[in-house]
Amino acid sequence: MKRDSRLSSVLHALLHMAEHDGPMTSERLAECMNTNPVVVRRTMGLLREAGIVASARGHAGGWTITADLGILTLRQLHEVLGEPAIFAIGNRNETPDCLVEQSVNAALDAAFAEAEALLLDRFADVTLADLAADFARRHAERRARKGVGNAK
Amino acid sequence: MKRDSRLSSVLHALLHMAEHDGPMTSERLAECMNTNPVVVRRTMGLLREAGIVASARGHAGGWTITADLGILTLRQLHEVLGEPAIFAIGNRNETPDCLVEQSVNAALDAAFAEAEALLLDRFADVTLADLAADFARRHAERRARKGVGNAK
DNA sequence: TTTCATGTAACTTTAATTATTACGAATCTT
DNA sequence: AAGATTCGTAATAATTAAAGTTACATGAAA
């Protein structure tokens, strides 16, 4: 299976949009993420339905953020994307008649449920504003390393 | 992508083997799990390399457990299977130049790392003997519900 | 020496994501 | 009003990884 990278993609897109004045087209976002504009529209369309972004057609159209980045969390975005399956490992048969397999499933399910709960809690802890701040920090660091702005 | 169900499969196989006297053939194990004998051999072969099971060819051949079920954990089996990817969700690009994407990756990676650590800890908590005991409990319960052994 | 069973390579099928093509609909500019 | 721009979306193909299948070699027991 391929891994679902849409959460990563929409985060990337939203942060670029936050750094950018005015709407960004699907075309430009697609360039940022090395993908296809149609893929961008499909994924961003889900965020639009959730009221997180808005889109406009025609000249000077494109995508804009409408949500408050200080409130929007990774968990909300995960939900907006339809809560895709988190694990690449799973039971062979979800509803087995075999009692042996039922024991196996119960043990695995319990472990996966705990891990999923923790992951979603961590997702809920991180807002888009947190990510934007982290980016700003990395950006400042890079500038410092390059010596940009150092009088000399 | 399909989900990897080999851990579930080998647990199922090991418990059936534990309940069974003498070696079990790939054919019989495959029937238990609704799969193909070659798939069983492929997967069980990894366990053999790790010294968890032994195989014998020819008449009266098949698979037998050599490990101590009281010590063998889900985590060890996960490792023996090559530590397959746990998550079906991931970063779009693992080594991006883009600072924005680096921030996104860092946040997601941190959350996934925590969830993975928890999952592996839980896997380490469960031995095959625990699963066998759980199966025995379920088996007894079913017998009780059916009234088997109830004098009447 | 025949039968049974594993060992493995090569190939096919299946399932899921992502990418692409094509075209329609709306909006802005001139 | 014409034309360019941009989203909306359906339909289809490509990609990727797991699981299944076929074929045949190897070895052990009756």
Description:
The structure is a homodimer of 152-residue chains. Chain A is mainly α and 152 residues long. Chain A is 58% helix and 5% strand. Chain A has 6 helices and 2 strands, in the order H-H-H-E-E-H-H-H. The first copy, chain A, has helices at 6-19, 26-33, 37-49, 74-80, 99-125, 128-146; strands spanning 53-56, 62-65. Chain A has a two-stranded antiparallel ribbon. In chain A, helix 4 (74-80) packs across helix 5 (99-125). Chain A starts with 5 loop residues before the first helix and ends in a 6-residue tail after the last helix. In chain A, 34% of the residues are buried. The mean pLDDT of chain A is 94. Chains A and B meet through helix 1, helix 5 and helix 6 of A and helix 1, helix 5 and helix 6 of B. Chain B binds a DNA duplex (30 and 30 nucleotides) through helix 3.
Assembly level? homodimer
Mean pLDDT of chain A: 94
> How helix-rich are the residues of chain A, as a percent range?
55-70%
Tell me how many strands of chain A there are.
2
Give a quick set of tags describing it.
DNA-binding, 152 residues, elongated, mainly alpha, 6 helices, homodimer
